[in-house]
Amino acid sequence: MRVVEVKKIFENCGIKFLPGHSYVMAEDIEAQYRALVGDALGMSYPIETIYKPYKGQDLSGKKLLVFRTGGIGDLCFLNGAIRILKKKFPTSSLRAASACKQPLENLTELDALYDMPFDAELFKETDYQLFFQGIIEGGSDESKRTHAVDMFLSYFGIDGTHIPDEEKVPRLTFTKAEIDWCQKTIAGWGIKDTDYVIGVQMETSAPLRNFPKEKMKAFIDVLSKEPNTKVVVIGSEQHDMIGNFFKGGSPNIFVATKFNVRQSIVLCTRYNLVIAPDSFIIQIAGALDKPLVGLYGPFPSEVRMKYFKNSIGLDPSVPCAPCYKHDFRGCVKGFPSPCFTQISVDDVLQAADLLKFKFTGAHFTFMAPLMREPNLQEVSQYMMGADKGLCFFPGRYKPTNAVTVDPNPFVEADINDLAKELRRDSVPFVLYMNEFQPKYQPVYANSKNMVRPGGFYIVYVREGNEQFYQEIKRDIGGSFVLLFTKFDPGTREILIAGKKDL
Amino acid sequence: MADNLDILRLQINQQNQVLEQYRTEMYNATLRFNLLQKILEDRGVLVKGEFDSRWPQYLRSDIGVVGPDGMMDGSLKVSKYWEKRAA
C-alpha cells in the first residue's frame, strides 16, 4: 500500500483524483497510473508513515477505517465482523473502503463506504485504521483450521468462540428499488413465481478453484430438463461465451453475464437453490439462507461455509487436498484441478435433490429410478422369517429388519463407510442390491461370506440382461442352494435367492 | 483517458494470465523431462510412445495422487451442516 500525491486532476473508474490531495492505493495500481498518467502523479511514500493500526483498543466514541483492495467473497467475511464490532462498541463510527464494496452496500452498521483508491484525508479524520489484506491469503496454519470470519474477528481483537454462529453470517440489506429491479428482470425472462430457480456460478476468479466445465454442463443439462425448473448461470461479461455453451438451445437456461456484482447479488434473492464453486456467490447465498451446494477442492468447505444453514459442501478426500493454494493460476497437477475428479455429476445432483426435498417435499424427476422400490415380494419370506440381516447398497430402499450398508454419502444408511468393521460376523440373511461395478467386486465376494449356515443370500439387480443373469446364477449356485431365480426381460429385473447349507 | 486505463489494465491482466499458463506448462514439461532423463539414464533405451502412454503412472508413483485413469485416488467427503443445525 502506498500514499500517492496527485498534481493534476484526472479521473479513473468513476473516481476523481484532485490536485493537492494524496490517495491510498496498492503498489500495482500505482504502477499502472504512473504508466498512463505519470505526469499527474507526484511523490509517493509507504502507508506506514500515516497508518495508525487498530489493535483491539476501546473504540467508544472513536472512528475506525477498515480497508481492503479486493475479493468480493472476502468482503462478505468482513460484513459479519463489522456487525459484531459495532455491537461491541455501539458509539463507535465505522468506515470501510474497498475496490469490491458491493457486499457491504446499505449495511446500517457502516457510517460510510468508499471506493479504492481513496483520499488519504480519511486517515486524518479517523482515529485508527485496519488494513485487511493477507489474512486468509497468507497461508498461516491458523487460516487452514479457522473459518475466515473467525480469522477476521481475531484480527479485530475479538474472541469469536462465544459469539453465536448466526451472528457470523454476513447480512445483506437491499433497497426497495433493488428488489423491484430483481422482480422485473426475473419476470422479463419469463420465470414464474412458481418456478424452481437454480443459480449456478460458472467460474471463480482463480482457475485453481474452477469446477470442470464438462461436469458443470452435464448437471446443468439434467437440471434444466426438470419440469418447472429454470437454471440461471451466473458470471461476468467475460463468461458470455462459456455461458452460451452451457445454455445450448435450452429455453430453461438463462445466461446472467450482463449484470454487475451488486445486481448479481440482488438476483440471488430469487434463487431457490444455489450451486457454486468456492466463490462469492457461496457467501451471498449463505447470507440469504438459500439451500446451497458448494463444490470445493483446494480449500475445505469447513473454513468457508461452516456457519451457513442448509448448505452441503462437497470436498474431495485426496492426499494433496486441501492444498490452500490462493494462486491465480491452474493447479500444477493439471487443469482443471484433478481433485475435482472425486466430485461426480451424480454427487452434485443428489446433493441438490436432498436440499430440494428438504424444503419443498418433492424430489427431482431424475431421482425416480433411484427412488423406485424394488419388488421383493417373492423372496420376502426369507427376510421376514429371520431377525436382523444386512442390506448392501440399498439406494433409498430400506428393508425393515436389515442394517443398511451404502457408501453413497447422500443415502441415510446405517453404515456409510465400508472401511468400518461390521459388528456381525454372520447374519440370517444378506440382501445385495444392484452394485456390480468392478470396484465393488470385493464387497460382493465378502458379503457372500457373511451369511450364517441356514441363512439366505438374495441378489437384486435393477437393469440386468440374460447373460448377466446366467453368470450371477452360476456364481451364487456355487456357494448356495438356489431357492428362487427370476429374470424378467420386460422390467430387466434379476432376483435370485440362495440358502447356505447347514 | 479512463477507457484507456481500463483497457491497459485488462491487457496487463490477460498477459499475466497467459504468462501463468506458460509457467504451469513449463513446470509440467520440466517434470516430464526430468523423469524421461532419469529413465533414459537407468535403462539407456526407451520404446517409442512408451513414455507418453505410461506418463500418468509415472505421475502416480512420483507425485502419488493421480491414478492410471487420470483420476485422483480418494473419496468424497460430504459435509452436512444443515443437519447439525436443524437439531
Report on this structure.
The complex is a heterodimer of chains A (502) and B (87). Chain A is α/β, with parallel strands linked by helices and 502 residues long. Chain A has helices at 27-37, 72-88, 121-125, 141-145, 148-155, 165-168, 176-188, 213-224, 240-247, 261-267, 280-287, 302-305, 345-360, 368-371, 380-384, 441-448, 466-479; strands at 2-6, 10-12, 15-17, 22-25, 41-46, 63-68, 93-98, 112-115, 118-119, 128-131, 196-201, 229-234, 253-256, 273-277, 292-295, 311-317, 389-392, 402-405, 427-433, 451-461, 481-488, 493-499. Chain A is built from 17 helices and 22 strands. Chain A has a 6-stranded parallel β-sheet, sandwiched between helices. Chain A has a 6-stranded mixed β-sheet with strand order 18-17-19-20-22-21, with helices on one face. In chain A, helix 2 crosses helix 5 and helix 8 runs parallel beside helix 13. Chain A is elongated, with a radius of gyration of 29 Å. Chain A starts with a strand and ends with a strand. The relative contact order of chain A is 0.07. The mean pLDDT of chain A is 88. Chain B is mainly alpha-helical and 87 residues long. Chain B is built from 3 helices and 1 strand; from the N terminus they run H-H-E-H. Chain B has helices at residues 2-43, 50-63, 81-86, and one strand at 75-80. Chain B is flat, with a radius of gyration of 22 Å. The N and C termini of chain B lie far apart (58 Å). The mean pLDDT of chain B is 68. Chain A binds chain B through residues 10-13, 32-33, 35-37, 165, 301-302, 305-306, 308-321, 327-330, 332-335, 338-339, 341-344, 347, 351, 355, 358, 409-410, and chain B through 1-2, 4-6, 8-9, 12, 16-17, 20-21, 23-24, 27-28, 59, 63-66, 70-82, 85. Strand 16 (311-317) of chain A pairs antiparallel with strand 1 (75-80) of chain B, so a sheet runs across the interface.
Tell me the layout of helices and strands.
The complex is a heterodimer of chains A (502) and B (87).
Chain A: E1 2-6, E2 10-12, E3 15-17, E4 22-25, H1 27-37, E5 41-46, E6 63-68, H2 72-88, E7 93-98, E8 112-115, E9 118-119, H3 121-125, E10 128-131, H4 141-145, H5 148-155, H6 165-168, H7 176-188, E11 196-201, H8 213-224, E12 229-234, H9 240-247, E13 253-256, H10 261-267, E14 273-277, H11 280-287, E15 292-295, H12 302-305, E16 311-317, H13 345-360, H14 368-371, H15 380-384, E17 389-392, E18 402-405, E19 427-433, H16 441-448, E20 451-461, H17 466-479, E21 481-488, E22 493-499
Parallel strand pairs in A: 6-7, 6-10, 7-8, 11-12, 11-14, 12-13, 14-15, 15-16, 17-18, 17-19, 19-20
Antiparallel strand pairs in A: 1-4, 1-5, 2-3, 4-9, 20-22, 21-22
Helix pairs in contact in A: 2-5, 2-11, 8-13
Chain B: H1 2-43, H2 50-63, E1 75-80, H3 81-86
